[in-house]
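Priority: medium. Attachment 1 of 2:
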């Protein structure tokens, strides 16, 4: 299946671009996991284009999912050309580990 094969091949690319699945499409159940698997398994920057709407610009607002791992650090490093050109970069950290520092503060200083 694509969600197993494509992330492996994406490891050899500078950037993978995929489309968000329309949840009402006939093949949605088959395609829903692809974007998630690309983000989680490729270890490379992934751009997910929305399935609906009209967008005249690309890459102006970027969301970085951060968990402090080696893989996340590598993905941010690889995405720096895009992050440097963005108008706004948001950092998302979900359920960070308990620690004495603010989750994501270290990386937010690098991408601001």
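Attachment 2 of 2:
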């Amino acid at each position: 299946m694509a969600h197993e094969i494509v992330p492996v091949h994406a490891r050899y690319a500078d950037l993978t671009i995929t489309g968000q699945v329309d949840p009402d499409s006939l093949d949605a159940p088959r395609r829903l996991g692809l974007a998630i698997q690309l983000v989680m398994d490729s270890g490379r920057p992934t751009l997910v284009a929305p399935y609906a709407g009209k967008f005249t610009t690309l890459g102006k607002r970027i969301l970085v999912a951060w968990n402090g791992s080696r893989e996340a650090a590598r993905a941010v490093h690889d995405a720096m050309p895009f992050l440097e050109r963005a108008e706004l970069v948001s950092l998302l950290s979900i359920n960070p580990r308990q620690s004495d520092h603010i989750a994501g503060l270290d990386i937010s200083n690098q991408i601001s």
